[in-house]
Write a structure and sequence with these properties.
By secondary structure, the protein is of the alpha+beta class. The chain has helices at residues 16-29, 41-53, 101-115, 130-138; strands at residues 6-10, 58-63, 66-75, 85-92, 120-126, 142-153, 156-166. The radius of gyration is 16 Å and the shape is globular.
Length: 174
């Protein structure tokens, strides 16, 4: 159930320490990010600047001044013919999970993708993350790939699934 006290808004640079805290918790404690070392604040600043400079959204779920979660999308691949395809990411603070925030965050990305004339939205999800798989399926994403043993974390091999949602957008003239 979504908590109505949560407000969705564009992220600001002042939000980056909270975003970093959420992201590093995900790195340290889950397989949602195939990284082993926590990120630095400078890495998050660079990530944020890259997203904003490329016209990509970064949203936060604000719970009365506390960042409950964040999401964004960016290039799926940087070659020109992929310009209508993006890859999304969404992360929620452990204290706020199970309240419907992820769904609202992903929906906000889909709305923005439609506005930006994006055609294909990709989500890379660790095969052991059934909650994220269920979330994306509930929003119409379909599994299109399952890469076996492409990641290694916590002493075990990890499979990576790709999910895709096609939007009804058609490219305009170049």
């Amino acid at each position: 159930m979504f908590d109505a006290t949560i407000k969705l808004r564009d992220a600001h640079k002042d939000d980056l320490p909270a975003i970093l805290e959420i992201y590093n918790d995900v790195i340290i404690n889950t397989t949602a990010v195939y990284s082993e070392k926590p990120h630095t604040l400078q890495m998050r600043v660079d990530w944020y600047n890259d997203r904003i400079n490329n016209g990509f959204p970064v949203f936060v779920a604000d719970a009365d001044g506390k960042i409950a979660g964040f999401c964004s999308f960016g290039h799926f691949r940087t070659w020109p013919c992929y310009r209508y395809t993006v890859e999304i990411s969404v992360y929620v603070d452990t204290a706020f999970r199970g309240r419907g925030i992820s769904k609202i965050l992903v929906q906000s990305l889909l709305d923005r993708a439609r506005e930006m004339n994006i055609h294909a939205v990709i989500a890379g999800i660790s095969a052991d993350n059934q909650i994220s798989i269920n979330l994306h399926r509930s929003l119409g994403f379909e599994e299109v790939a399952n890469f076996k043993e492409v990641g290694y974390k916590f002493g075990r091999w990890l499979d990576l699934k790709f999910f895709e949602l096609l939007l009804n957008n058609t490219p305009g003239p170049i």
